[in-house]
Amino acid sequence: MTISLKTEVPGPRSRELMAERQAAVARGLSHVTPVFIARGEGAVLEDVDGNRFIDFAAGLAVLSAGHLAVPVVEAVREQSRGFLHACFHVTPYEGYVRLCAALNRLAPGTFPKKSFLANSGAEAVENAVKIARAATGRPAVVCFEHGFHGRTYMAMTLTAKERPYKLGFGPFNPGVVRAPFPYCYRWPGTQDPERVSAECFAAFEQSVRDVGPDQVAAIIIEPVLGEGGFVPAPASFLQKLRAFCTEHKIVFIADEVQTGFGRTGELFACARSGVVPDLMTLAKGLGGGMPISAVVGRAELMDAPMVGGIGGTFGGNPVSCAAALAVLELCEQGDLLRRARALAEKLPGRLAVLRRFGKVGDIRGQGAMQALELVKDRQSKEPDQEAVAAVIRHCYERGLILMSAGTYGNVIRLLMPLVITDGQLEEGLAVLESGLERFAG
Ligand SMILES: Cc1ncc(COP(=O)(O)O)c(C=O)c1O
């Protein structure tokens, strides 16, 4: 058994720290669990009271390679002996170049590619839009309902969900058009992926017609919605979008910040549809726990901004570059992708039995990126956010850290480190099952 609870959860030390947190830290930051963490390893977290948890959140989809993955820690240690920061604009360094070259090699597409490094997913999104506008000379950007792209102004404007991400933060950026996303479970009239795909694409064309395709710089889409509730876009929808972008010379941006680096069983989620994006935004799993993000794509687009037009003080920090190179090596030569595929094969079958709980309306995902959508009843599909909150609480009180997602907050998403052992997976799923038994039966 991995889970070991020595105190009630949250324990006394976590409660003390939470009181200090309330006094010292801005209210607007939310917490999935009220426990303070002292250390992590693989798919296990230990809190400040000595309680051991199984981690099905991976630091919000970051620790795909696990907490303290040995090659990542060694790369960080090694780089820390040389220099911690230099700023690529002041004195360039090899790690930045090597990481860009590796990303260019691994990203889909046989055309020449270039990359740019930043610190967060939101920053990658901002820069992808800047690059697309600079390359096309056009103003508009098309995004999708239920999408999440980050919390900076352009990324927040592109994000769909009002509460809590946008409430009180307007006005937002101009030039953004929002089209429907092919959310099969909630599509009116049909759940058939091909019909949803066709109807949704027709609605997309209508949204773009209003602004005019020749005014559109870019379309940005998550191949599988992350914060929106792990909803995969049907392959045919992505293919139609790709063809539309090619026809109208629009930059196709795949936001793979959450889906990238094995989460879906492939290095990138786009692989399932065979769609090759013009630009891709990457972050989260890339750094193995260190902050880093990237825009990768067609060299001629990436070269559109003038010299000095993109960048930043910290982007592509040398320690983060070293960590990311170690993660890419784990993906390429190590067994991270093999383990991702094994998890991707096992998880859907393992979760299918959870359909027996009446409030489980939908189980879906791509690869290891699986989620359960809870509803008050299957007929009305009324979202049951309260049941999700109760299950998550039940789980952390019993040693499993889980996260919700979805526009209505009624989705439980599984984001375990891809290196989780079979034993830990089963132990975690048993806790989840007991929570569903109690609150979703
Ligand atoms: C698809 C997607 N894009 C962008 C972001 C923003 O990333 P960050 O929180 O690193 O700014 C996220 C974060 O959850 C995401 O899931």
The assigned structural class equals alpha/beta
Give helix % range: 25-40%
pLDDT averaged over residues: 97
Radius of gyration: 21 Å
Main beta sheet: 7 strands, mixed
Give the strand order of the largest sheet, numbering strands 1, 2, ... along the chain: 4-10-9-8-7-5-6
Give the CATH topology of the largest domain. Aspartate Aminotransferase, domain 2
Put simply, the count of helices is: 13
What CATH architecture label of the largest domain applies?
3-Layer(aba) Sandwich
**CATH level 4 superfamily of the largest domain:** Type I PLP-dependent aspartate aminotransferase-like (Major domain)
Number of domains: 2
Which ligands appear in the coordinates? pyridoxal-5'-phosphate
Strand content: 15-25%
The CATH C-level class name of the largest domain:
Alpha Beta
Order of helices and strands: HEEEHHHEHEHEHEHEEEHHHEEHEEEH
Q: How far is the first residue's CA from the last residue's CA?
A: 26 Å
Describe this structure in words.
With 441 residues, the chain is α/β, with parallel strands linked by helices. It has 2 domains: 12-61 and 335-439, Aspartate Aminotransferase, domain 1; 71-332, 3-Layer(aba) Sandwich (Aspartate Aminotransferase, domain 2), CATH 3.40.640.10. It has 13 helices and 15 strands. The strands form 3 sheets. Strands 4-10-9-8-7-5-6 form a 7-stranded mixed sheet, sandwiched between helices. A 4-stranded mixed sheet has the order 1-2-3-13. Strands 11-12-15-14 form a 4-stranded antiparallel sheet, with helices on one face. Helix 3 (70-82) runs antiparallel to helix 10 and helix 12 crosses helix 13 (422-439). The two termini are 26 Å apart. The structure holds pyridoxal-5'-phosphate. Pyridoxal-5'-phosphate binds next to helix 5.
